[in-house]
Specification:
The complex is a heterodimer.
Chain A lengths: L5 H25 L4 H4 L9 H40 L2 H16 L1 H16 L3 H29 L3 H16 L2 H12 L3 H26 L2 H9 L4 H30 L1 H7 L5 H10 L3 H26 L1 H9 L2 H21 L18 H14 L1 H21 L1 H4 L11 H21 L2 H16 L6 H16 L1 H16 L3 H31 L1 H16 L2 H12 L3 H25 L3 H9 L4 H35 L7 H10 L3 H32 L5
Chain B lengths: L1 H6 L13 H6 L10 E5 L3 H17 L3 E5 L4 H6 L6 E6 L5 H8 L3 E6 L5 E6 L1 H6 L13 H4 L8 E5 L8 H7 L4 E5 L3 H14 L4 E6 L10 E2 L32 E6 L2 H4 L1 H9 L4 H12 L5 H11 L1 H12 L1
Parallel strand pairs in B: 1-2, 6-7
Antiparallel strand pairs in B: 3-10, 4-10, 5-8, 5-9
The chains are: A mainly alpha, B alpha/beta.
């Protein structure tokens, strides 16, 4: 789009929107009398699920031997590692990790590592914890390697990128449950299935961050590398990678978190007595104390592994390490070696070195459970009013619209004709004022929002929804995205899953808006205040790696099964990327730019809104992309607390061992994610162009 | 007796070796193979008990037994190739098509009922008893719809239902019985349990689809609603049951709990396979053990060992019958 064409294009858009809006009005007017407009008819449904089932069966039969072989290859290092970790007395393992932490990032991390690992000893979870460590030490490197390789072949070629991006969306949003059964058919029953599933789910953040990081390396830096005669290989390893390192490390962090969050999913298969299995058993009993104590192990692993890898890539520390005297470099390992030998020597006499005695176990589960019960009983009324307020005034209008949400029971009065007319009048007025005061686009936005809120996601005729969303996609991000959008939504119509999809869209939309608002604010705050940042980081890590059902147990006790609990669950998980990427983006704005802005007299407010936020837009948009992905990924978890929609469809398919139906629901989630992502990216690119940040 | 036991001391766990020795010597062929018989340990305590009781008796018979943690659905895959040799508590209520698919594979066989008698029906809590004095008669539910309604189901009452993927028939049942209630699927067992415990803590009336035996009955008082008794044909034939125009106008059909095994067991460990066929465990056996573990925090292994030691008269005949 060139600036000369702007007026023509603007006029063109006005026509497009007029047609869409008038068409929508007609469709809405006709919907009550024309059945297929209101609800997609059943006989339109194509047997896509059945076909998928047949294809899966063929693939499984052909590819089984090869996959079984790969599986057995993976099993070797994993079993060896698990065996070794079980064999080592706990002081030895702790000493080795402590030394690693010390070398990576100094004594503070060492103390944290020792405390974190000792927690596992103290609570009596050492053995299952080590089994988990054995699997994640395979799955994380696997995810990172896979991610690294994919990013390297992708970042320079837009063509490859076009294939890889949707692939990543699929990997992140198609729920693991949907393909757990097919990959189990391929690899056979065993822990390897868990490793593979974890790696598939965990590698996309790595790829995405690496691509953004590599693409953002300034051209001048590469130019200067070239001029000093660097070979392409040197250019890659010594110029591009170091310059992109801080963004790549966000990817490493996110991949680590994702791999650990999969521990619980992998445990569903069973087969290795790990901490995920432990948590799963406790969750089934809805024992909050027990599952919290066990779940914390996973979060602690996430933090330790993440901080160690972060320490090793910190350039300042790397230089320090190289210049440190030999004695400082060797000491940690020397101490560790002494502890390892010592623990082996004394293990036969002091049995508590290999097996922590039961009497010494610290396990405050009952205290936690009693406290939770007390809290539930004491604040029942408060909880109920919080829930009802959110439900009546926010969640229900988005899902079923004002037209159905307003009733004497919810809002305290019934809808009367004058109210409906008033609503229409106010919206029309707003639209006119906005068009006159700002631009016709704001006016159209108001009309669309008002209509959606009136009918709700599930009440709006499907054809209207598809037309509006796809036109938006087209106008914002080009005709390709527009067509993608039409095809994606039609897939849901033709597989007969439209209603469930709309329930899920409403839920995710509600949650993502909240995440954006609060997550963005927290991210901005954290970017300006180191103390806030250091407090938020472990909370974020915990939210992302702690099995979420654990957090859901108190929510369930307070708010009962249903929509509100699901809503909170999605926010708890999906808000993290918003916070993290906003902070990261703002902190990465070049110091020189900030100084220049300050020197020409920018106020702090101007500095944030007009300089920092626009410059950080790529990272913030990546954060929003991840928030949408995470929100959709959470649908499967929220189905466990009784939310309806696509997540529930996946489980129903799973229990019927209907892989096709599961994949159809899974693909629908991926399609929603892809459309949302492309529209956001298109918008972001447009903004950046308007600001002159990219060509 | 004491003397002989002593000779075999290292091979057999001490607690229940007593009395076993005579059997062990009677059949020299056992074990037919030293390879471990792998028994699946699923996600709930009751199943752990059913499995380990059988496992400990098998160990007494001289077999090498290994307990393999396995997910409830995934284990069906593992049964096909002896990654898991047998699984002993398959509930008809929630296994779905995995059961039929496993049998259809030709590699898995069913080895009879476990003997536990599951009861699945609607339950209500103490607060509901107060709010709705007409209970347990199901007709009374319509008099206290308000007490059971919440923000998401209003103006209808709420029946907290099985997760949608367990295949519940309560939507039809509510309609057939003319009850002004909505089914709210719970999503998972954990959610059901949390819901019941939460309602108990808040003293809020609750109507919930649940089952027994389940450890929760030892913590929260739940009372079954008296639904019209199940009759054959009630699920398919509208004319059967209290409502002449609807199916499902009756209580839930009593389900069954099966044992399943890898097909090759009968060749590899014939005596063990026969024993598993004979093996049964009743509600009266399982529930006290379940409470001992889940409520009193006793160890699974110790509780099982104690049962095996105390109930020799019960299980000895199964072993003897298998050895012939």
């Amino acid at each position: 789009m060139q600036s000369g064409d702007k007026d023509r294009v603007g006029l063109h858009s006005v026509w497009v929107w007029s047609v869409v809006l008038i068409g929508s009005a007609v469709a809405i007017w006709l919907a009550p009398s024309v059945a297929w407009l209101a609800k997609p008819p059943v006989d339109w449904v194509l047997p896509i699920a059945d076909v998928t089932n047949q294809i899966t069966e063929v693939i499984v039969n052909v590819a089984k031997p090869a996959f079984r072989f790969i599986g057995s290859v993976f099993a070797i290092p994993m079993e060896a590692l698990q065996g070794l970790l079980q064999l080592l007395p706990w002081p030895a393992t702790i000493a080795l990790f402590a030394a690693l932490a010390w070398v990576a990032a100094g004594w503070k991390l060492m103390v944290f590592t020792v405390l974190a690992l000792f927690y596992m000893v103290l609570t009596g979870y050492w053995s299952p914890s080590m089994n988990t460590l054995g699997t994640v030490l395979i799955s994380i490197p696997l995810a990172l390697l896979l991610g690294f390789g994919l990013a390297v072949v992708t970042y320079q070629s837009p063509r490859v990128n076009q294939v890889v991006q949707p692939l990543l969306d699929f990997m992140q949003t198609v729920p693991t449950f949907a393909y757990l059964i097919p990959i189990m058919l391929l690899f056979g029953f065993g822990p390897v299935v868990g490793v593979v599933a974890s790696a598939i789910y965990a590698c996309p953040p790595m790829v995405r961050n690496m691509i953004v990081g590599l693409q953002q390396v300034p051209e001048e830096v590469i130019e200067s590398g070239r001029m000093s005669g660097a070979t392409p290989l040197q250019l890659f390893w010594q110029v591009r990678i170091p310059n992109a390192m801080s963004t790549i490390m966000v990817g490493v962090n996110q991949a680590t978190m994702a791999a650990l969050s999969m521990v619980i999913i992998a445990a569903i298969i069973g087969s290795s007595a790990d901490i995920g299995w432990e948590v799963l058993n406790q969750m089934r009993k809805a024992r909050f104390g027990e599952s919290l104590i066990a779940g914390l192990v996973i979060a602690l692993f996430a933090m330790v592994l993440d901080r160690i890898s972060l320490g090793f890539t910190d350039r300042g520390r790397a230089v320090e390490r190289q210049h440190a005297p030999t004695i400082t470099r060797v000491t940690p390992w020397l101490v560790a070696a002494i502890v390892v030998m010592g623990s082996f020597v004394f293990a036969p006499q002091l049995t508590w070195l290999s097996v922590w005695p039961e009497g010494w176990v610290f396990y405050p589960a009952d205290v936690i459970n009693d406290a939770l019960k007390q809290l539930t009983a004491d604040y029942a009324a408060v909880m109920k009013s919080i829930k009802n307020t959110a439900l009546f005034y926010y969640l229900l209008p988005i899902r079923i619209g004002f037209s159905k949400a307003i009733s004497p029971f919810s809002w305290g009065f019934a809808l009367e004709t004058w109210m409906v007319q008033g609503y229409a009048l106010v919206c029309a007025l707003l639209c006119v004022v906005a068009t006159w005061r700002y631009s016709w686009k704001v006016g159209v936005g108001i009309v669309i929002t008002a209509t959606l809120l009136w009918f709700g996601m599930t009440g709006i005729p499907w054809i209207v929804f598809i037309a509006v969303v796809s036109t938006l996609a087209w106008q914002v991000a080009g005709w390709r995205v527009g067509i993608t959008s039409v095809l994606a939504w039609m897939f849901m119509v033709l597989t007969g899953i439209w209603q469930q999809a709309m329930v899920s869209v409403a839920m995710c939309l509600a949650a993502v808006l909240v995440c954006l608002l609060f997550g963005g604010a927290l991210g901005i705050w954290a970017s300006r205040n180191d103390r806030v940042s250091s407090i938020i980081r472990p909370i974020n890590d915990t939210l992302q790696s702690m099995p979420l059902f654990v957090i859901l147990i108190p929510f369930l006790m307070f708010f009962q099964i249903g929509e509100f609990t699901s809503f909170l669950a999605i926010i708890a998980y999906a808000i993290v990327p918003c916070i993290r990427y906003t902070e990261h983006g703002l902190r990465n704005v070049p110091e020189t730019t900030v100084e220049a802005a300050v020197s020409i007299g920018c106020t702090p407010r101007q500095l944030l809104w007009n300089v920092k936020l626009p410059l950080a837009l790529p990272q913030i948009m990546l954060g929003l992309n991840q928030t949408v992905m995470f929100a959709l990924a959470m649908l499967v978890i929220t189905a466990l607390v009784g939310s309806k929609g696509l997540g529930q469809s996946v489980y129903i398919a799973l229990s019927n061992s209907d892989a096709g139906q599961g994949l159809v629901a899974g693909f629908s989630m991926a399609f929603i994610a892809i459309v949302a992502d492309r529209v956001l990216q298109g918008w972001s690119l447009r903004r950046q162009r308007e600001l002159g940040l990219v060509q | 007796m004491q003397h002989r036991t002593h000779l075999r001391s290292s091979a057999i766990a001490l607690g229940f070796a007593l009395g076993l020795s005579s059997i062990a010597t009677a059949q020299a062929a056992v074990p037919e193979s030293d390879e471990p018989i792998k028994l699946a340990m699923n996600e709930w305590t009751g199943q752990h008990i059913s499995t380990q009781v059988a496992g400990e008796i098998l160990k007494n018979m001289g077999y090498n037994v290994e307990y393999v943690t396995a997910g409830y659905y995934p284990q069906m895959q593992a049964l096909e190739d002896n990654t898991v040799s047998a699984t002993l508590e398959i509930w008809s209520s929630n296994i779905g098509e995995h059961y039929d698919n496993a049998l259809a594979s030709g590699n898995v066989v069913e080895v009879g009922d476990l003997g536990l008698e599951p009861a699945e029906t609607w339950f209500y809590n103490d607060a509901a008893k107060e709010a709705c004095p007409g209970l347990p008669a199901f007709e009374a539910l319509n008099d206290c719809v308000q007490a059971f309604a919440n923000a998401e189901t209003f103006p209808q009452g709420r029946l907290v239902d099985y997760p949608a993927d367990w295949g519940t028939t309560n939507v039809d049942r509510l309609a057939a019985l003319g009850l002004d209630y909505t089914s709210a699927p719970a999503g998972s067992e954990g959610a059901l349990v949390a819901e019941i415990q939460g309602a108990d803590a808040r003293s809020e009336p609750l109507l919930v689809m649940f089952w027994s035996p389940h450890w929760l009955h030892a913590v929260v008082d739940l009372h079954p609603v008296e639904l019209p008794a199940y009759e054959d044909g009630c699920y398919e034939d509208a004319s059967v049951g209290v409502n002449p125009n609807a199916t499902f106008d009756c209580d839930w059909q009593r389900g069954y709990i099966k044992k399943m095994a890898w097909k090759g067991m009968a060749d590899k460990w014939p005596t063990a396979a026969k024993f598993l066929e004979n093996y049964t465990l009743t509600n009266a056996d399982q529930i006290p053990m379940m409470n001992a573990i889940d409520q009193n925090g006793e160890k699974l292994e110790e509780v099982v060992a104690a049962w095996v030691a105390d109930n020799e008269a019960t299980w000895k005949p199964w072993v003897e019958a298998a050895s012939q």
